[in-house]
Amino acid sequence: MIKITNLEKIYRTDLVETVALNKMSFDVRKGEFVAIMGPSGCGKSTLLNILGLLDDCNGGSFLFDGIEVAKFNEQKRADLRKKNIGFVFQSFNLIDELTTYENVELPLIYNNVKAADRKVLVEEALDKMQIMHRRNHYPQQLSGGQQQRVAVARAVVNNPKLILADEPTGNLDSHNGNEVMDMLTTLNGQGTTIIMVTHSEHDAQYAHRIIRMLDGEKVTENILRELDYVHN
Amino acid sequence: MFKHYFKTAWRSLIRNKLFSAINIGGLAVGMSVAILIGFWIKEEVSYNTYFKHYDTIAQVMQNQTVEGKIYTQMANPFPLSKTLQLKYGSNFKHVVISSWQGDHILNKGLKSISESGMYMDKGADEMLSLKMIYGKYGGLKDPHSILLSASTAKAMFGNVNPLDQQIKIDNKLEVKVTGVYEDIPFNTDFNNLNFIAPWDLYVFDQKWIQDDRNEWDDNSFQIFVQFSDNVKIYEANQRVANAKYNEVSEGLKKFHPQVVLMPMSDWHLHNNWENGKQTGGAIIYIKLFCIIGIFVLLLACINFMNLSTARSEKRAKEVGIRKAVGSARSGIIKQFYFESILLTIIAFFIALLFVKLLLPWFNGISGKQMSIPWGNIFFWLISLLFIGITGVIAGSYPALYLSSFNPVKVLKGTFRVGKNAALPRKILIVIQFAVSLILIIGTCVVYKQIRFSQKRDLGYNKNNLIAVYMKTPEFFGKYDVLRNELMRKNAIENMAETSSPMTGLWSSSNSFNWEGKDPTLAQDFGVIRVTHDFGKTVNWQLKEGRDFSRSYVSDSSALIINEAAAKYMGLKNPIGTIVRWGSDSNASAYKIIGIAKNMLTESPYQSTRQTFYMLNYENANWMLMRLNPKMNMQKSLKEIGDTFKKYILSAPFEYQFVDKEFSKKFEDEERVGKLATFFAVLAVFISCLGLFGLASFMAEQKTKEIGIRKVLGASVFGLWKLLSKDFILLVLISCFIAAPIAWFSMYKWLQKYQYRTTITWWVFIVPAMFAIVITLITVSYHAIRAARANPVKSLKME
Question: Of chain A residues 71-130, which have a CB less than 8 A from chain B?
Fold first, then answer.
């Protein structure tokens, strides 16, 4: 589903040039759950942002479902992103002015889904994340765990092919953290590809494969368990 | 999608109440000023357009050259009207000579009302396209007729048709009502014209006008014309230029009289003349206010941008999330435009409320009768356009700036606005404060000039002095009996009659000669006819010689001159000098018996005109009475009123206090002062909004620095000083920019006054101190909040 080859990302200021990704290559199969680990500053979030089409790269190739997307302009990236990718962030990133329901509804609005269909899909997602009873609450009225459930619901509501999770349990206690990881595993079990950046060895154990990075390069790759079957 | 935009915008507005209130409030203030100015400009440019023949009516003006300088006046000699009709008639549909507009008494049986009107020649009704309710055009053909305005007709006759009813003007002239016209609206030069009587009646009534029929030397009347079809104004102007010059004697030719036709479209906005040329007029205020309106609205829009982007780090997160979940930049731009237009709509309705509240006051200052045209569809269409433009201008920078945020940085929490992002805001603050300071300094100088002129020595005592205008002939010949009775009743200390009010100079002449007169002296002398007790009544101060006295019969040809006259005449010892009035051998001779200190009767800002006072019991227009200070004022006035009613039956007893009339001379300057104060307050308010935006922006930018400083031991007071210092510096820069501009503008403004105040140091220092204090108050809210914030939180964000 994803194939990156010799991907490069360099940050330049007047005085310093920092190589964030150095000829990084790997691929991710449909339905796979991949954990990316490494110390702070190793380039894992940069990688995730490029994979999520939020950021562009300086060199190399990035195939998404067989299409080269590395040179896409902003509009094309936004189009591809809203149809195929869901995000889960460490700090939840919900919009404070919108209720639980409305936050989850947001990707559907940008995808021009009809209001009646939106209702069905949002309620389905909220139900799945067991947060339906908080549908009219604002983010600041929810606990961290609840906020992350909403964020996950928002990430899946559009039924994306890929979920990118950037330390999704980083701001949660172990109980809520485990719940979020269970949710992601369930989604993965239902066929959604997941790429997760994490510092937690515990969380990484939920994945099929762990890619470890150092100084912008892939250093090791461990397969924890085999992908059961390839989803179509 | 719009529903979603609306929801987000509305909730963001409700959640940040203070910020929203300041932002909308600022915009509303800017918009209300723009609306007020818009109303005012509309009113000004539509002045006189009520008249159907607006484009083809003109007033006859006259240029005369005196001592090398050309003076322009509206007053013309009687025979000019006939000449224009007979020799230049093909140019005009109507030539209408008329009196000046003035108050007269209209009597119907025992009912008397005082109304303002004019005597005008036939054709006035048609020329002015009066909308006749009763009667038709041609109502002035009969010399004993009168046209009444609808309100006057109603006041006199109620709701009945008054045609053919007989009434009297000033209790003596019998006239028949031949027409009733719709009241002429306020924004015209004839707005208070409540009756029009025939010119022929005026001539019939006044001997001096009959004598003037062929007199080219007495410029006492107005003449209006309406051009014939296809006659261009400049052609007509060229043809009639010498209409007077060709008719006058050699003596008058030296003044080189030139006739100029001023079109009605110029009367209101282009009526200033300098050295024979039109030099603008109130149009300058239209331009000035237009600039002020646009400037204020633009400042308010910029403040809106400032405040909207000041919390950019807060909005950045939302932008990042939206982009991450699939919004394109254009979607975010649309959202911010939607927000700004929504806020502009709210601001507009608040602005309408402000306008509604401010209009009575603004009408008072501007001398208008404006109202909000709620039912006018055109007004709402313009408003829609106004909202759209304002919303787009105000929303443009936030929309483009906020939508440009990189979602990666924003969502990672490493987003920081650039260091230079504050620079445009700083420049804006400096400009805003410089404008505010210029206005404040200007206001101080205007009021200083008013106070300075109010303290000027008047040369007489204006307090406790009342004046009664002698409206009807019934006043004449009653002076002695009124004076004796009022003196006997102790209601007054003294009483006199005069031809000019104490606050004006109604007649002048340049036909005075004396032995040794410099032949180049051609300026007019003010001529005031008074009764014996004038000096004692007004308490004038004689510098030399003596007052008029009943003991000297010869005082009937005595002259008291003022100091200005003594100086202008250049006489070493004026007392005893014989002055002749008139150019022929029958000229009357007057002997100067005294010199009075200059009395201020005209502009308090100009030097006093050379004036002659002479005894005359037949040409009085005003009665002056000094109230007895030992008697209660109300009682004195009642006694005077009762006495007047006893002897003068036809006219209601109406009086003026001279001191109040005098204070009206400052109305123009006070209006300028009030407007300057209004704009200064507004500018300060808008500047404070800008400052507030900048303070919140800088506090947000410096969160980390403040956190570190606090950890290292900085006190709240120390941090407050640190944060406030930058702003004080900006205001000081504004002071240095404002001071020379304000000084130069006010120096130029003061030059138009001969009698003027000085620009002292405190008019700069006090506003500067004020600006600094108001700056500290405004920025302290953010400075103290930032300084008191928990450093752990701000550092954790890193």
Answer: 74-75, 78-79, 81-83, 87, 89, 91, 93-98, 102, 106-107, 109-111
* A79/B408 Cβ within 8 A: no
Phi, psi of B624 (to 5 degrees): -110, 135
Residue B321 contacts residue A93 (beta carbons within 8 Å): yes
Q: How confident is the model at residue B706 (pLDDT cuts 50, 70, 90)?
A: confident
Q: Do A89 and B15 touch (CB under 8 A)?
A: no
Reported in sequence order, the residue ranges of B499-569 that DSSP labels E, i.e. its strands, are: 508-509, 512-514, 525-530, 542-545, 558-562
Among B330, B340, B332, CA closest to B388? B340
Q: What is the pLDDT of residue B552?
A: 92
Q: Indicate if the pLDDT at residue B473 is higher than 70.
A: yes
Q: Which of A93, A97, A102 sits opposite B15 (nearest CB)?
A: A97
Q: Which helix (H) or strand (E) holds B569?
A: helix B563-569
| Per-residue pLDDT tens over the stretch B153-210 | 999 999 999 999 999 998 889 999 999 999 999 999 999 999 999 999 999 998 888 9
Q: How confident is the model at residue B617 (pLDDT cuts 50, 70, 90)?
A: confident
Residues of chain A in contact with residue B407, where contact means CB-CB under 8 angstroms, are 54
pLDDT band at A14 (very low <50, low <70, confident <90, very high): confident
Q: For the segment B116-152, what is each residue's pLDDT rounded down to a tens digit?
A: 999 999 999 999 999 999 999 999 999 999 999 999 9
> Residue B42: is its pLDDT beyond 70?
yes
Beta carbons of B322 and A95 less than 8 Å apart: yes
User: Residue B48 — φ and ψ, nearest 5°?
Assistant: 70, -5
* C-beta atoms surrounding B661 within 10 Å: 17
Q: Which residues contact B578 (CB under 8 A, 6 or more apart)?
A: B514, B515, B589, B590, B591, B592
Which residue in the set A83, A98, A107 is minimally distant from B8, CB to CB? A98
Q: Report yes or no for ipTM above 0.85.
A: no
Interface of A with B in 126-165 (CB under 8 A): 154, 158
- Which of A228, A226, A161 has its CA nearest to residue A189? A228
Chain A residue numbers with beta carbons less than 8 Å from the beta carbon of B4 are 102, 109
Tokens of B619: 């040409």
Taking the C-alpha atoms of residue A93 and residue B195, their distance in angstroms, rounded to an integer, is 77
User: What average pLDDT score do residues B356-385 get?
Assistant: 91
Q: Which of A11, A83, A95, A102 is the best residue to mutate to test the B interface, defined by the most B CB atoms within 10 Å of its own CB?
A: A95
Cβ–Cβ gap B325/A75 under 8 Å? no
CB B16 within 8 A of CB A97: no
Give the gap in angstroms from C-alpha A209 to the nearest C-alpha of chain B.
25
Nearest one of B700, B706, B538 to B623, comparing CA atoms: B538
CA distance A63 to chain B (A): 19
